[in-house]
Amino acid sequence: MMLATALTIIAIVTQDQSALRAAPRETAAQQAVLWQGDRLEIRAEKGDYLQVYDHRRERAGYVRTTQVRVQSIKPEAAPELLSIVRFLKDAPGSEALGIGYASAYLMAVPPGQLDPAAIDALGTMAERLARRASMPRSSKATAEAVAAHLEVAAEYGVGMTNVEREDQMQLCYDGEAFKRVLALPATDVQKADAALALTRHDCVPPSLTPVERFAFDNWRAELLDRVSMGNLPEVKKNRMHLRKAGVWASLAFQLARRPESGAAAMQAAAGRSLEELAAVNKSELMESDAWAYSEAAIRVGASRWAAVPAIPTAPVKNPGRVSVVATPGQAGETCIHLIDAKHGADKPLVSRCTYAIVWTASVTANRDGTALALAVQPLDTWREMWVFKQGPDGWSVDIVPPGFDVPNLGYVEFAGWVPGNSHVLAAREVKAEGRFRLSFETLRFADLGVDKQADKPGNLSLFYRWQDPVWKAQTVSLR
Q1: Contacts of 168 by beta carbon, 8 Å cutoff, 6+ apart
Q2: Distance, CA of 185 to CA of 375 (rounded, Å)
Q3: Is the CATH code 2.30.30.40 the one for domain 9-72?
Q4: Which H or E run includes 361?
Q5: Which of 254, 296, 300, 364 is 20 to 30 A from 289 via CA?
Q6: How far apart are CA 61 and CA 52, in angstroms?
């Protein structure tokens, strides 16, 4: 008996590793292995089997009726399909099945009656599938299932991109469904979720050129600002603030690399990132968002000096005082010269050049004139501390990085001078080995190695007595 003509009825596979057999018998040869979400054309029914045709594999065969669900895709079936899609949206592990049902809904829904909830669910399931595919596999069977589900999703037009992060490949959803949600009369929550999915930091292609990255960050900032936050629940507002903080911090760094944009634009972007981080309602911050909060704080902390106007360079007139002068080096390079009352930029005490952004507003010297600290930012998420020191053999420059892994997320900053040239105070926040760590440290003046550290500045006596008031007022490490 024929069950379907013109594909008004289809069969959706509901069980992984379902067998497509050559005949309606359990002992018949297996033609293919089917996975949840696979869509089949129904040709006939024979006992406990359906005779079907698999267009993806271009094969006909028989499949058990218990392993599929016969589903109408006539317009009157659209509400039923939408309810199934809504259910599967929040069912981890069933993303391929949910994408199959979302496709069936789109086939059934009459023109002009599309519910944005279906497109939102499609994007949510596609993104979750990408996250599953990027996680370490617990077994060979799990890896096989995830790979098969990706193939099912690809058959429905779900696009994925590969992004290399921390020496491993990460799969990211291309976001097509979320872009459509933003163009539809969706709810504010649905649009917020779409904007968050489209602006993920970990899915920014690292291969972008500086010009492309600047344009992409501008697009992300504009996209987030288009979402109305007035009616969002506090949890969603927090997530929007955290994402905006990270995006604007990146924009501040990009603007610092483009002098033609002007200092005012850079300072406004950095100021916006600080405002967004400060707007987070900590009492409504979910445990699942703790990592996002730490990540946003590091991003903002790395670029926070962009919000402070640069101090005009002037000759040093007081003996025993030191300062720095920045001059252009080779193409794209900045050279830093340490000067005092007797040594100008033409004959500096010591010089060092870098392709990083040099925040001259961060310059601070100890009262003895024997040391100077400077913030230098090579990446939008990575800021180092340069320390100029006077020793028996003259002046030298030591670089203190946030961490010793591959530069990813982190900053280390000057927090105070201890009299007698015994120690330098520093605050460090970094993501290392998959964990976030915030510490306050006393560094030995001689080699800038860590002498003591604590998770709170008050737990170190030297920090309690000698922390710099300017640092305390401006840092995000004390949030």
Answers
A1: none
A2: 46
A3: yes
A4: strand 357-365
A5: 254
A6: 6
* Cα atoms in the Cβ-side hemisphere of radius 13 Å centred on 295: 19
- The residues facing 336 across adjacent strands are 326, 352
**Rounded Cα–Cα distance for residues 112 and 101 (Å):** 19
Two structure tokens written together for 355 = 């392709």
Q: Using CA atoms, how far apart are residues 281 and 238, in angstroms rounded to an integer?
A: 6
Find, among 238, 121, 239, 242, the residue nearest to 190 by Cα: 121
In the structure encoding, which two tokens stand for residue 469, read together? Answer: 């008031």
How far apart CA 67 and CA 332 sit, in angstroms, is 62
pLDDT at residue 479 in the model: 87
What integer best gives the mean pLDDT of the chain? 93
pTM over 0.90: yes
C-alpha 462/C-alpha 466 separation (Å) is: 6
Tokens in use for 41?
A: 């054309």
Q: Residue 438 and residue 298: Cα distance in Å, rounded? A: 10
Of the pLDDT bands very low, low, confident and very high (cuts 50, 70, 90), residue 188 is: very high
Q: Which residue has the tokens 């049902």?
A: 101
Give which of 329, 375, 344 is closest to 475, Cα–Cα: 375
Residue range 86-102: mean pLDDT, rounded: 97
Please give the structure tokens belonging to residue 50. 């359906």
The radius of gyration of the chain's CA atoms, rounded to the nearest angstrom, is 29
How many angstroms separate the CA atoms of 276 and 304, rounded?
12
CA separation, residue 468 to residues 106, 298, 346, 396, 455 (Å): 61, 20, 31, 23, 18
Cβ–Cβ < 8 Å for 39, 104: yes
- Alpha-carbon dihedral sign for residues 403, 406, 411, 416: positive
CB-based contact 158:97 (threshold 8 Å): no
Neighbour tally for 424: CB within 10 Å: 27
CA distance 337 to 349: 7
Nearest Cα residue to 21 out of 67, 58, 69, 64: 64
The rounded distance, in Å, linking the Cα atoms of 335 and 310 is 16
Question: Which amino acid makes up residue 254?
Answer: Q
Q: Is the pLDDT of residue 5 over 50?
A: no
Amino acid present at 84: I
Backbone φ and ψ for 302, nearest 5 degrees, come out as -65, -35
What is the dihedral angle through the alpha carbons of 452, 455, 458, 463, rounded to the nearest 10 degrees? 40
Orientation of helix 290-303 relative to helix 263-278, angle to 10°: 150
* Phi, psi (rounded to 5 degrees) for 326: -105, 130
Looking at residue 144, its pLDDT comes to 93
Domain boundaries of the chain, sorted by first residue: 9-72, 74-186, 209-309, 311-474
Number of neighbours of residue 26 by Cβ within 10 angstroms:
10
At residue 326, the 3 state secondary structure works out as strand
Residue with structure tokens 């903080």?
Answer: 245
d(CA 75, CA 70): 15
